[in-house]
Amino acid sequence: MKQIWKQTWRQRLAAALIQLLMVLAMAGVGIRMPVQAAEKNAVTQSGEMKVHFLDVGQGLSILAQSEGKTMIYDGGDRKTSRFVVSYLKEHGVSKIDYLISSHYDADHMAGLIGCLNAFDVKNVISSNYVHTSKLYQSFVKAVKSDGLKMQHPAVGKTYKFGRGSFEILAPKTIEAKGSNNNSVAIKLMNGENSFVFTGDAEHESEAAMCNSSIDLSCDVLVPGHHGSATATSWDFLQKTVPEYAVISCGTNNKYGHPDKDTMDKLQSMDIQVYRTDKQGTIVVTSDGANLNWSAEPCNDYTPGDDSDQGTRSTSEVQQEASQTAIGEHVWVSATGNKYHKTNHCGNMNPNTAKEEPRAEAEAQGLEPCKKCY
């Protein structure tokens, strides 16, 4: 009998609570439950992606983590291989889902051999060419020892990575005698945030990326070849339009990286700059909409070599061209908006073309024909 009474009492209490809630609802009184807030916080946390730009001196190594998935893009040089492995272990890495070797230069690849030996690697992505170095042979051997194959995905292939994804941007073609322009470039995405890594890709590879149908715009760009003037062309910057640039290079390196030309471009476009040679390892956290950095940008636009004066400015080139053009004559068609070296360029009608000083043609707003000049 006692047990039956307890059950009835609970039923009565439940019925009373239901009646109370109905009365409150009819009265327009709502009770807010913390479930929605908790769910929102859980989504934000699970949607995070951390990107670590490791200070590996004159080299490159980038660690990305998202929802238990790990990517390592390049591994730095031999001297920093132990540091890279230790850093990954300190950040809870035991498995690498994607190990990406942009190309086979030592300052990008050596540390990856240590990663292959220290961690459970699931996929290896690399460039489809053969290097002549012994280090390359060691890399190939380490991949095979893990029972893996070196994957060479085509441009445009997309991989899921944690909450986000990444897409292959380059190389479109392989240079038989090249290395830098064979770099595997990727665009890493997490919600509205994106990052572009290009290894040592130079102007030729950048041009191919610009001519592709892939959206290159990003929040964060790692300028190619450690900020060398052989990379980070104007066209590439105008396609990527990054808010931040992270330059990975060594302090007082013998190459003078980053070059003045590159830094001048970044400064002229008001791109905020982080530098491993000035700030060490840099970490940024993406929640899919915003970026939270471990430090403020240094915005140090000085070149690695203090004596680097860069190339001549645009105004200097234009001034010299103008002075050269004073005594030069050009041909102008009756309807065109270009001036030419000859009166029969392309579809020009020689009978209606007229000759005039180049300075006069330029004063009229005419531009040089790309076929002639």
Automatic annotation (TrEMBL):
<dbReference type="InterPro" id="IPR035681">
    <property type="entry name" value="ComA-like_MBL"/>
</dbReference>
<feature type="region of interest" description="Disordered">
    <location>
        <begin position="294"/>
        <end position="327"/>
    </location>
</feature>
<feature type="region of interest" description="Disordered">
    <location>
        <begin position="349"/>
        <end position="373"/>
    </location>
</feature>
<dbReference type="GO" id="GO:0016787">
    <property type="term" value="F:hydrolase activity"/>
</dbReference>
<dbReference type="InterPro" id="IPR036866">
    <property type="entry name" value="RibonucZ/Hydroxyglut_hydro"/>
</dbReference>
<keyword id="KW-0378">Hydrolase</keyword>
<dbReference type="InterPro" id="IPR052159">
    <property type="entry name" value="Competence_DNA_uptake"/>
</dbReference>
<protein>
    <submittedName>
        <fullName>MBL fold metallo-hydrolase</fullName>
    </submittedName>
</protein>
<feature type="compositionally biased region" description="Polar residues">
    <location>
        <begin position="310"/>
        <end position="325"/>
    </location>
</feature>
<dbReference type="InterPro" id="IPR001279">
    <property type="entry name" value="Metallo-B-lactamas"/>
</dbReference>
<dbReference type="Pfam" id="PF00753">
    <property type="entry name" value="Lactamase_B"/>
</dbReference>
<feature type="domain" description="Metallo-beta-lactamase">
    <location>
        <begin position="58"/>
        <end position="251"/>
    </location>
</feature>
